[in-house]
Design a protein that fits this description.
Helix content: 10-25%
Order of helices and strands: EHEHEEHHEEE
Distance between the termini: 17 Å
Oligomer: single chain
Strand content: 25-35%
Largest sheet: 7 strands, mixed
Number of domains: 1
Number of strands: 7
Structural class: alpha/beta
Strand order of the largest sheet: 1-7-6-2-5-4-3
Shape: globular
Radius of gyration: 14 Å
C-alpha cells in the first residue's frame, strides 16, 4: 500500500487513511504486537506523520520526538496508551534491553518506532514496516514495505 502526501496540509488525511486501512487490519489485532516501524532519512517526516496519527487516534497530548527520552507515552481517544520510540541516539543495544522494550512491544498497545533499523533484531515478527520518503517537491510517500508473519 502506498499513501502520497502532496503537501503538509494533507498529513492528517494521510494519517486518517493509514489508521483506517492499516491500523484496523486484522494483522494488528490486540492479540499480536501492535508495532509500526517507520523508516526514513532524517527530515523525511516520520515525527510529523506520527503527530498526525496520534491526533487522528484522538490523542490530546503534545506529541514530540522522544530523541533523548527514547520513549514517550501518549493516550488515544479511548484512554489506551500509544508508545512513541526514537532509537536514533542509542549507543548500545543493551540500552534497549535495560528500558524493558519487551514490556512495550508485547503490551498489545500501539508502538510507533522511529529509527527501527538500529534495533531491527528486536522487532516483533509481526511488526509493520513503513518507509517514508521525501521527494524534491516536498511531497512524501508513505509505503508499507513489509509485514512478516
Amino acid at each position: 500500500m502506498i499513501i502520497n502526501i502532496q503537501k503538509s496540509e494533507d498529513t492528517d488525511n494521510a494519517a486518517r487513511q493509514f489508521s483506517k486501512e492499516v491500523l484496523s487490519s486484522p494483522a494488528l489485532s490486540p492479540d499480536t504486537p501492535r508495532v509500526v516501524a517507520f523508516y526514513g532519512k532524517m527530515g523525511a517526516g516520520k515525527t510529523t506523520f506520527i503527530k498526525s496519527l496520534c491526533k487522528v487516534l484522538g490523542s490530546d497530548d503534545v506529541v514530540t520526538s522522544p530523541t533523548f527520552a527514547i520513549v514517550n507515552e501518549y493516550t488515544d481517544g479511548k484512554g489506551k496508551p500509544i508508545y512513541h520510540f526514537d532509537f536514533y541516539r542509542i549507543k548500545n543495544i543493551t540500552e534497549v534491553y535495560d528500558m524493558g522494550y519487551e514490556d512495550y512491544f508485547y503490551s498489545g498497545n500501539l508502538c510507533l518506532i522511529e529509527w527501527p533499523e538500529l534495533i531491527e533484531d528486536l522487532l516483533p515478527e509481526e511488526a509493520l514496516h513503513v518507509n517514508i520518503t521525501a521527494r524534491e517537491d516536498d511531497s512524501r510517500v508513505l509505503e508499507i514495505i513489509e509485514t512478516r508473519h
